Structures are given as C-alpha cells and as structure tokens.
Amino acid sequence: MVVCIVALLVFAVLSIWSAKYRVLAKEAFRCVTRMVTFRPCDVHLETKIKTKVTSKLMFLPALARFFYKHFKIISWAFTISFFASLAYSVYSIYNLIVFGSCTPGEPCVITSFEGLCILVIEQYLAYAIVAVLAIVLIYFLIKSMMKKKK
Amino acid sequence: MLDTEKIRSEFPILQKQASGKGFVYLDSACTSLKPKPVIDAMNAYYTEFTACAGRSVHKFAKKTEEEFSVARRKIAKFINAKPEEIIWTKNTTEALNLVALGFPLEKGDSVLTTNLEHSSGLLPWHMRSEKGIELDFVSCNKQGEFSLEDFEKKITRKTKIVSVIHASNVTATVSPLKEIAKIAHDNKALVLADSAQSVPHFPVDVKKLGIDFLAFSGHKMLGPTGIGCLYARRELLEKINPLVLGGSTITDTDLHRHVLADVPMRLEAGIQNYAGAIGLGTAVDFLSKIGMENIEAHEKELSKILVEGLLEIPNLELIGPSDSQKRSALASFNIRGMEPHEIALMLNDKNFFVRSGMHCAYPIHKFLNFPKGSVRASLYLYNSKEEAKLFVEELKGIAKNFS
Prior knowledge:
Strand content of chain A: under 5%
Strand content of chain B: 15-25%
Oligomer: heterodimer
Number of domains of chain A: 2
Structural class of chain B: alpha/beta
Low-confidence stretches of chain B: none
Helix content of chain B: 25-40%
C-alpha cells in the first residue's frame, strides 16, 4: 500500500515528460485516494510494480526471487528513505533560503555552481543507510520472533 | 485434425505482435479473437449498405433486412432451432435477464439454480427473489461437477425454472443438460441454460437437449461484441414480458394503449445491432465450415496437454476434474504462495494473455476456498499444441521460482 505514495510522486514527475507514466500516475493517485479514505486499493498497483520489477530481475532468478519474497519490506525501506531524503532536502532548501547555506556554519559538499548548494550528500546517505539497515534489522527480528512463536 | 496454421492465418490480430514479440492468447473464455471474414462482413454493412431493417423501403434497407434475417436463420440452424425462436440480445447477460425478469412467475414459485453460476445467471434471480420468488441452489461437488443427486433432492413441484450454467467458466465442467431437462420436465419446471461457454466450443442441439431457454454471446464465438441470442420455444417467448418497449415492438398504438407485435419483434426494441448480427452470422459460417465436432476434438487435445502439464507442477492447485476428457477447453488454477493477479501479470510480461480474479463467479470460488479467485487459461480453435506446451513450461518456471 505504502508504495503507492512513492509511486504517485515518482510517476507524477516522470509523467511530465512521458505519457507512458501518466496512466501509472493516475492509478497511483487513485490508490492513494482510496488509502487515505480507508478503502482498499483496487487497481493492483503494488502487484503490477512487484511483478514488473520481478520480471525485469529474472536474468538473476535468485535476485528476482529475493525481491518477490521481500517486496513488502523493500517497498517500506524505499518509502522511508524516500521521505527521509525528501524531508532533509526541504530542510536544506529552507536553510539555503534563510541562511544562504544548506548547513549553516559548514561549507556545502556538493555545489552545482559557485555558492549554490544542492544537498549535503554525506549526511543524507548516512541517514538513508541507517534507516534502511534499521528497517531490515527490525524485519528480520520480527520474522524470527514470529517463527519462534509458531 | 484441424489445420491450426491455416486457421490462424485468417485472424489479422494473430499476424501482429504485442510489444515487439509474438503472443499467446489464452483468454478466449473472456472473448475470442475475430477472423477476417467476420470483420469484413461487419465493415460491409457500414461501408456498403448502412440502413434500418424493416422500416424504410429503399434498396439499402431491403439489403439490411435480408442480411439481418439471413443471420437469424444461420444462428437458428447452428443450434437446431427455428428462426422465430431466436431473439437478438446484447449478450448472454441480457438474454438471461430477459427470462429472469420477464417470464411470468407468481409469489411462492421457486427457481432452482446452482453455485456454479456466473453473476449473469445469478444476480437477475436475486432481483426476482426480492419480489417473492424463492431461490434454491444445487451444490456441485468439490470437482465442480453438477450433482444430479442434489438436484433431484432440491427440485419440487414449486420449482418453475431450473437455471443452470451449461459449461462452467471456472471449473470447466459441463452440466448434464439432457438429464437435467428430463428431471425438470417431470416436475413441470422449465430449463434455462447459460451456454456462453458451450455454444462456441462444441455442438449444441436445443432439441436433442430438450431445454426450454438457451442464452449465448457472439463475442465468445468469433463474433463481435454487443450481440447475443436467446433461444426459446415460440409459446414460451410469447409469455415473456418485454423489458424494453419502443420502435418495432408494437403493431398499433395511441396515446393510452398499444398492441404488441408478434415474437420475436416484441422482444427486440429499437434499432438493432445489424452489423453485430451479420458479423455473428458470418462467425457461425466460419465455425460450421470447420465443423463443431472438429473444434471440440481439437480443444480436447489441447486441454489434455494443458491439464496434464499443469498437474505436473508442484504447488499448483487445478480447479475442476483432473481428467481432461471431463473438461471444456479451459483451466483455472492457483499456485500456492502467489496471488492470481501476480501470476497473470508475470505471464503478461512474457506475452501469455490469461485472465485472473473471480471471473464473475464468486460463489464457486468461495465454495472451493479460493477467496482471491484464480488464474484462467482458456483455449480455442486458433490455439496450437505448441502454445499449450509453451504455456505450461512458462508456468513451471514461475512456480519453481516464486511459490
């Protein structure tokens, strides 16, 4: 379900350039609308994304199998890291507008041209990696606990 | 033995590709592909003689009238009926609704149907039961086979109509219509058959079966969408109350009264789907030329390959009998650990077109404990043995990797 939110944002941006993604963006929008109104998503968007990516990974069956079996947790990891990076970007942009630098008091790590900072990649990556690892860890902890219970 | 290659060459869509690759169409139970003669016949109506039948007197109108009545005669002959016993409808659904909602029944009368029914054969009776008609059900066995034993237990003198699916669109089982009709008639009940999945696939003779009503669609038998038929004996058609009135349904009217026309006209209101009827007539010619017995034999061969192949796959749950000779040309199944839509989407990625979900048959899926439905591969005369084998191989790969 959560993957719909990311899909909506990603496909909405992609659909600016390609009509192919507009259909998916519409489906994602419908899915999100239904989700926020506490109704089940009826467009099978998650299933479509899951099977599409699985099919693309079939050149390495083990990888495809791993993705298929752990799709839920992978989609959660992507969703959380997406929102974490989004929040951090907003924070950086705010700093840039208010203080003239993404990280006031520190120099920017990446600059597109002199003086303009885009993202502090080092910190962003660190947060994302920690978030993904934490989720994976929690997932396996819960799974092993469930197994023990059975 | 059918010359599949020759047959396939008559289908323009089979000469094309999907996403740059060849495809295997296994969704004929949903709708069949259309051969060129059918498309040409429909186009001819639109490009050569567009008009209304039975109204105007000009040449195009006469030509339309002639083609329209020829199509009716062809359909009648195809199921061994008389032309005046055929009513044009939009599809099987409309034909079933016409009987369920238009045939006179009294409060307290009972209708006996089954848990194998498609929504089209069930929901109209729900509507009717709200008006005091009792509804009872014959339960099939776990193989999805119609139970004559249960039927004999359930039928009573109050039963006025037995509404039964001829060939199931989920379990692939074929109901013993002849025996059903005999038992029903012994109890003074009429038999309505939903033949959407039978008329396209094997010979159906309404007289030999002894049934009273029969409904089927054109689009599942190489014809266009939007055209179907209801067969009933004349005296029964005369009893049906029209659900829609309008042009062509009356012989006279004034501001407060009207006189209904004779059947079949009174049940065919407004301008008809002439192109659809002409297209369906051509489809019937196409099927008759090949021979329904030959089509049935070809489908049995394909079904054997498909069913035997599916049964070899571990974790695959086949719905219906495992003996392919007891099945019509389709196979519904599930792979443990996977959802039906996932399987269908994976197959779609490899250009195998199947259907997934409930197939408009919720009760039978619930009865067989498949609440999320199933995947269905359905075959027709244009499918080859190679396609059936390729499909099984693809499915083996999916089951091996993901179940």
